[in-house]
Amino acid sequence: MKYICLGYLEEHMWDGWSEQEQKNFVNACMAYDTELRKNKNFIGGEALQSIRTATTVRYKNGRPLITDGPFAETKEQLGGIMILEARDLNHAIQLMSNHPSTRLGGTWEIRPADEQINALYQEGQKYSMTS
Question: Would you tell me which of 34, 36, 103, 108 could form a disulfide with 41, CB atoms 3.0–4.6 Å apart?
Answer without folding.
Answer: 36
